[in-house]
Amino acid sequence: LVDHFNTHLCVCDEGTLQRSARRLGEVISMHRRPGSVVILTGDFNVFGGFENSQALRYLRGEYGDNPNPLEDTFRVFSPSGNGETFPGGKIDYIMADIGTPVYAAWIDRETVPYGQASDHYSISAVIGI
Length: 129
Hints:
Layout: E1 2-8, H1 14-31, E2 37-43, H2 54-59, E3 70-72, H3 73-77, E4 92-97, E5 102-108, E6 122-127
Parallel strand pairs: 1-2
Antiparallel strand pairs: 2-4, 3-4, 5-6
């Protein structure tokens, strides 16, 4: 049983992004089914701090009171790998419930040359459910 949520957060200040992350947490709590695995994907636009932004720290359960903490599948699979999904940092994520098995996760910087299809690199993950 999987509950998948997708988002594209604003290019805005860190406080607004943190409030958006809090709202995402509320929506996930309202709509997740008992026993489901939550997957949250999207462009989080966390330019103010990237992986250490307030929004990401909230979603991971490290800041605030998120009742459904998630983890970045790329970081589970590659804790010290180059996470850049946009020039300058990591703003795109595939997140899943903490403890979800991650068999592979990668950022494809080679299939389509940067800028031809998107201004972001594509991301993928193989997880166990």
